[in-house]
Design brief:
Cytochrome Bc1 Complex, Chain D, domain 2; 13 helices; single chain; 2 domains; binds heme C; two-stranded antiparallel ribbon; disordered N terminus; globular
């Protein structure tokens, strides 16, 4: 009799522990990254990360419903195959064929990013979508209208309710869902990462390129994220009145400074620089070697011993390029978790 009861209890405990395991797996949905990455900057806090919330953010990212005429989605300018930069265009096209003045940046490792936009003008991932949605050449949609469309939509209204509770959709919920999707876009599976994890070796040229990179580029494009998120002027010829960081701080000493971009996936995110002026990595390397323009706010690291720029021989350039190609993460660009 007693032994029966114990057996029953044991069975019950076993089933219970299995179902807990299941719960565990569900709540394990979260940011994963290698141990050589620093701690992420974004803390989900009140925005509790769940698979449902992430999937809702993903649906919204690919849905043109957020633009005024339902023609442009976030994905129109941020394509997964290009590490979420634009499809090979200097200035993206938004609603009604309009275009802005800056190049669409790649999107990955955003949970580590303390500032957003080329001029660092946005400092929180949860307010980030406000800019493209309301921008008159990107999606041209006021928030009130966007929220109304979502509330009138049969499946979105259900999906939001099941995550955020029985209340109408508001912009906070929209921003939370998009922040969940964006912050989960983590890229750490390039050949460089395989090498860091001892799973792959670099060729002689790639390895030489890494050493040149560490000596000449890493003070701004710092490993392992390949940026230090500072705002600097890297000596580009001034072609227009985009003041960059100076537009935000209104200090002339910040004019024409832009956020140091990550160089992860750099072979996939052409064209380059805040206005997409360079089509190839060769042009970028020629710029650092011989194209740096003297300017009051030029970063002091780009003047050495009174000489402008970073001297690079033909061979240095070949090796640097070989190294930069090891930063492409094809697991990231083809990950079905991130696709529509
Ligand atoms: C018409 C093209 C276009 C659309 C549509 C668009 N973006 Fe962008 N996105 C850009 C451009 C251009 C920038 C850089 C703007 C700047 O620096 O002023 C940018 C910047 C960003 C950044 C900052 C990245 C960084 O490294 O600083 C994020 C995040 C982002 N977009 C997310 C989104 C989301 C989410 C949507 C949809 C709600 C969206 N974008 C829709 C073109 C677009
Ligand atoms: C003094 C800091 C600094 C140094 C040193 C530096 N960079 Fe940059 N880099 C920047 C800044 C700032 C930008 C963005 C400039 C802009 O768009 O206005 C940039 C942009 C780039 C881009 C374009 C990225 C994109 O997404 O469009 C590439 C590629 C690049 N740098 C490679 C290099 C290489 C290779 C070296 C070494 C030879 C190097 N950088 C050295 C600050 C630096």
């Amino acid at each position: 009799m007693i032994s029966h009861k114990i057996r029953f209890l044991f069975l019950f405990a076993l089933i219970w522990s299995y179902s807990c395991q299941d719960d565990q797996d569900k709540s394990d949905f979260g940011l994963t990254y290698p141990d050589y990455f620093p701690a992420p900057h974004y803390q989900f806090g009140k925005n509790k990360l769940t698979r449902e919330g992430f999937e809702l953010g993903r649906a919204l990212f690919f849905d043109p419903i957020l633009s005024i005429d339902s023609t442009i989605s976030c994905e129109s300018c941020h394509a997964q195959g290009h590490a979420f930069a634009d499809h090979n265009t200097a200035l993206s096209t938004g609603i009604a064929g309009l275009s802005g003045t800056r190049n669409s940046p790649a999107l990955f490792n955003l949970a580590w990013q303390p500032i957003f936009m080329w001029d660092g003008g946005i400092n929180h991932i949860e307010v980030m979508p406000l800019a493209p949605i309301t921008n008159e050449v990107e999606m041209g949609q006021d928030m009130e209208g966007a929220i109304k469309k979502l509330n009138n939509h049969p499946t979105y209204s259900k999906r939001f309710r099941s995550i955020f509770g029985e209340k109408p959709i508001d912009s906070q919920q929209l921003f939370y869902a998009l922040a969940q999707y964006m912050s989960m876009l983590v890229s750490y599976n390039s050949k460089y990462d395989q090498y860091r994890q001892g799973k792959s070796t670099l060729t002689a040229d790639e390895d030489d390129g890494l050493q040149i990179f560490r000596a000449k580029c890493a003070s701004c494009h710092t490993e392992p994220l390949f940026t230090d998120y500072s705002l600097r002027n890297n000596g580009l010829e001034i072609l227009n009145d985009d003041l960059g960081y100076g537009r935000i701080t209104l200090e002339t000493s910040d004019n024409h400074k832009f956020k140091v971009p990550s160089l992860r996936n750099i072979a996939l995110t052409y064209p380059y620089m805040h206005d997409g002026r360079f089509r190839t990595l060769d042009q970028v390397l020629d710029h650092y070697d011989s194209g740096i323009v003297q300017y009051t706010n030029l970063d002091p690291l780009l003047i050495q011993n009174g000489q402008l720029g970073i001297p690079l021989s033909q061979e240095d350039k070949l090796k640097l390029k070989a190294f930069l190609h090891t930063l492409s993460d094809f697991t990231f660009t083809s990950n079905p978790l991130y696709s529509e």
